[in-house]
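Entry 14. Structure prediction run on the chain below.
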Amino acid sequence: MSQKINPSIIKIDLKQASGPGPSVIGTVGHRPEEEVKKEQLKPSVIAVSKSNDTAPMAPSALTPRDGNKTPGEVTTQKVAPSKMAGMARKRLPVTFEDVKKAHPGQKEEILEMAYQFVLEIDIQEVVKSSVLLWKTDLQKRYSEKVMELLDCTQNEAIAKTGSQISRVIEILEAIDLRGVCDYGQDGVFAKLIKGANKEFDTPEELLQAEKELKQLTQRLAMQLQALIQLQHNLQTLNAEVLVLSQSIRASGIAASFLSGYLRRKSAELPKIADQFLERSMSLMQTEAQIFENEMAREMQMEHPIKLIGTIQNTVLVMIPDWLGSVGAIRSMLESNKKVTVTQVEEISDWKKKIIKLLN
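Output returned:
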C-alpha cells in the first residue's frame, strides 16, 4: 500500500511577519532583530517532515548521472518509436533486375526511378482502391507548366518589342532618300504630290522620321531587361518540363511492369492489372506529347533571344550610325550642297540591310 503523505506544517512568527526579510519556515519563537537582518537576503527554507510515513521524492529523470548508480536513481534511455496497430505494409517481392529485364533498352536512371515507383505500391491498399488516378499528379504538373510557357509567349515585353520593331521597319521602308535629294529640283505640282503620299521624301518629313526612329531606339533599349528575364524564365520552365518527362516515362514503365506482374502472379487481380495498363498507356501518351512539343518549346525560347540580339546588334548599333549619315545628307541639302547619287545609293543599300536584319 502507498504511504500517506502528511502536509508540511508552516509556522511563522507573527511578531516578525511585517519585517522585510523572507519567511523562515519551521522556526518557532521570537528571534533577535540582528539574526533576522542577517537572513534577509537568504532564500526561504521549506521544512519537510521527516516522519516515516512520508514518501520520498523520486529523483528526476533529467538529472545527469555522476557515473555511480545509486539506489532509486532513474536513468534516461532511448525510446523506440511506437507502432500503430494495423496491418504491416506489404510490398511486391521484386528487384531492380526484374524491372530491367521486363523493359530492356531503357536508360539506367529511368529504370531506377521506375523501380522506386514499383516499391511505393502497397498491395493491401491497391486491392482496396482503384489505381485509375495513380501518378495523375505528374500529368497535372505538366499541364501547369504548359500554361506557364503559354503565358510567357504572351508576355507584354514581347508584344511591345514586336510592335516597336514593326514600326521601325515601316518608317525605314517609307524613307525615300532619292526623293529627298531631288525635292528642290521639282516643280510645284511635284511637291504637292510628294506631300500627299505616305513616304518620307521631303527634308521636313525626313527630319520627322529621324526623331521617331530615335524615340523607338530608346524604347526598345528599355525592353532589354524584361526580355532577358523572360528568356531566363523560359529556360527554367523548359528544364522543369524535361525533368518531369523523365518522371512520367518512369511511371509509365512502372505501371506497365505492375500490370504484367499482377496478371502473372495473381489471378484474383485482373481488374487491378487492367487499370495499371490503362495508366501506363495514358502516361506514355503524355510523355510522347512532351517529345512532340519539344520543337515548339525551343521556338518559344529562341523568340526572346532573337529579339534581344536584334535590339543589341541592329537597333542600338546600326540604326544610330545610319541616322548619323542621313543627318549629314540633310545638312548638306539645307546648305545647298550637292549630294552625289553614289552617296544616296550607299545609304539606301545600308537601309535595306537594316530592314533585312529587323525582319
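Residues 182 and 333 are 10 Å apart (CA to CA).
Filed with the rest of this week's runs.
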